[in-house]
User: Fold this.
Amino acid sequence: MVAVLQRVARCSDRHDVQERLELVDLAIKAAQESDTPRDIAITVWSMARLAVVHSPLLQSICSQSLRAIVALEPEELSNTSWALAKLQCDNATLRQAISK
Assistant:
């Protein structure tokens, strides 16, 4: 699911996607299947590219990211930071952990 969500996010016509609820469902499934720090970063990046805002899911992703913070590569950290900023999701604990 993570790969599917990422491919949709990379499409040049992603703004034409009509069914936002389907995107939310896809993002939720991708987040549930995210078992690596890379998958978590890709999921939140894809959500930001698609402008999918789902507060409970974003908070769950923040929690997952905090647990995996030491395993995140620099690119994954920057993509996660960018995505959360783009989605206007401010998690102070995660922000502080990323900045260290």
In short: Residues 48 and 87 are 6 Å apart (CA to CA).
